[in-house]
Amino acid sequence: RVLEELQSVEITRNPTRAVPIGSIVVGDHNPIAVQSMTATKTQDVAATVELINLLQDAGADVVRVAVDSKKDAQALAEIRKQTSANLSVDLQENYRLAEVVAPHVDKIRYNPGHLYHHEQSKPWQDKVRYLVEVATAHDCAMRVGVNCGSVDPAMAEKYDRDDSISPMLESALDHCELLDDLGFTRYVVSLKDSDPKKVVEVNTRFANERPDVPLHLGVTEAGMPPDGIIKTRIAMEQLVARGIGDTIRVSLTVPNAEKPKEIAAGREILADIAAGRVRSVVDYGLSTLNIISCPSCSRVENEAFVELAQQVQQMTQYAKEHALTIAVMGCRVNGPGETDDADLGLWCGPNYVNLKRGGEALGAFPYDEILGKLKSELDAMIAQRAGS
Ligand code: SF4
């Protein structure tokens, strides 16, 4: 019935504010923008520019680049000179880099859950005030990027551990209120989770509270195609068909040369929704093996990461009827947190891959041993469940 409702619906989009980002405008009934992100080392200017241009040629409306250090920020200045793409910068944990990068980009993305990493005694409100000053001075839009794996710890503490939606929602609403109070309205919000159902719920609840704020939609760590595209499609169909969403990203774990697939998939999903070709299995759930993996970014610690994720997918095929989640992440910064909810979690270091079962760390293993170790753990978990 829900499927019929979605197929027959005439889409009336939420009356969001207009947010100019470089040469495009997001929100206010403008076409839904499709975004992607680089996964090269930002300091490798030639490789990063090549990937940005590849994405732009594929139709990317905005390309995000991560900066982690002053050297990354300097590289971004050079990258800016070599491309006309609309650029967004991901500030990661170092919000103070904003003043160094803002002159070279069209949008600044910060994560409320990352603001506490530096100058911990300073209230988050002061940090947002600083970001607003920088964005205003350099004609940048902003994205408040709330992510399930890195919610503001103070907010997470207020709610039951089983309720991952409310801390995300409250964090986003608080930041919107402060930005509005500061007179800064040129921002979009994103609320991402690796579970499409949660993406639908948190964005729907946010849109009910703030229908005026443009939303950037995405399923984080959606994984490899085709599953990663299917998970994203499920969330987008539910949201976009109901008028929610002004810009999207399909996050896929693919080699850099295949990153344009993110744009192609995003455009296909939007075209299908606009034409009423909605195919969601509405009750998508974790009844089978679920592999989640990050799309990688400049932080990825070993270039074998994408291949490792693909090998995990192939090696675990024999277990696909089991309702288990395996998470594969590209770095030690976000890997430990982003694998928290998985039954088995892996995250890359330069020479070793870390493995954990539930919350228990099992150690770090060389790249050529990790698949065997993962298989033993998976077998043990399946046997244990069969016996219980
Ligand atoms: Fe980048 Fe690490 Fe997140 Fe993967 S887990 S996208 S490598 S920050």
Automatic annotation (TrEMBL):
Cofactor(s) required for function per UniProt: [4Fe-4S] cluster
A GO biological process held by the record: isopentenyl diphosphate biosynthetic process, methylerythritol 4-phosphate pathway
Protein keywords: 4Fe-4S, Hydrolase, Iron, Iron-sulfur, Isoprene biosynthesis, Metal-binding, Oxidoreductase
Entry's Gene Ontology molecular function annotations: 4 iron, 4 sulfur cluster binding; 4-hydroxy-3-methylbut-2-en-1-yl diphosphate synthase activity (ferredoxin); hydrolase activity; metal ion binding
Highest taxon, organism lineage: Eukaryota
Location of the IspG TIM-barrel domain: 16-256
Ranges of residues in domain IspG C-terminal: 290-379
Protein name: 4-hydroxy-3-methylbut-2-en-1-yl diphosphate synthase (Flavodoxin) (1-hydroxy-2-methyl-2-(E)-buteny l 4-diphosphate synthase)
Originating species: Cladocopium goreaui
Residues represented out of the complete protein: 370 to 757 of 759
